[in-house]
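pasting for the record
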Amino acid sequence: MNQNGLAQTFNSIFKTDEKPRFFFAPGRINLIGEHTDYNGGHVFPAAISFGTYAVARQRPDQKLRFYSMNFPERGVIECDLADLSFNPDHDWANFPKGMIHHFVEDGFAISYGMDILFYGNIPNGAGLSSSASIEMATGVAVEGLFDIEIDRLRMIQLGQNVENQYIGVNSGIMDQFAIGKGKKDSAILLDCQTLKYSYAPVKLMDHEIVIINSNKQRTLAGSKYNERRAQCEQALADIRTELEVNSLGELTAEEFEQYKHLIEDDTNRKRAKHAVYENERTLLALKELEQGNISAFGKLMNESHVSLRDDYEVTGAELDHIAETAWKHPGVIGARMTGAGFGGCAIAIVHQTQIESFKENLTKSYTERFGFSPSFYEAKISDGAKELTEEF
């Protein structure tokens, strides 16, 4: 969808000939460091070239009108600046509403309403963080339309507040952080405990990142996510009977091996092992990329998937099939699930000359086994959320 198409749709939906402004927030992938965020460890996400466009203008009154080209059947969803409370009838529009609510609650002056049209090219339910993308697209639109000076980290935290307090999802800060702070051709090593971060160049030489959507609905992700959190919290509580530590992310692998006997439940021990070893893999991944060792980076991705499969048990047959098929394919240096698991997406780093045969081979074997086919997206690593001032 180009600028002219979005502008025409905006003018048609909101019945105006006024020129709107254009904003964009990417989606994100996590290259490595899965289920480490709420365990006080490190994550290694990157913003991608798919995302959410917000086409917006200020109104002369107090009305807020939202329209999504992805959910046209919902029509225009309308509310007033005076009542920004969560409303289940407002469906997807609670994400932008929640963001505006938190801006206002934080003391920023939003004195007029807005018309905002959203268009997202992130596949729905794929685990590439479409909700955080909508939040951050709304954030940069509000920032731009009202000339608000807001620190980007604060905007990221407001986005997390929308999830945690307004929507009621107990998620970490990684998604909003990657989307808000993304940088072209770089991943972000983020310490989820301290919010210290650094950029690492992702130079893949002749390779590309291919996103593979399993197209399996992520039905278990929410309940199992909460269960894994509780298991890790119990494992940490057991370790703290002898060792003063604030999170599993503070433990080295050696320390874990020394104290793991304190974890009474075998399953909890496996969950904690994943959190500790995955954090170490993530720190090592940064070093390997800085030195240009992409094959070593790929090996760490593979090890990450094995740990998520065997110790954390969040992959499922579809994601396992994708990763295990990718590992055997020529030109693939690494593949793993990305996101919460139980469906959603995997990523693979594939040599450019092998991408088409990789897609064909995987589609054939996957469809034969599961009766439906995966989808593929070739993603570039892109900048974070911003206003679009040039033609696109």
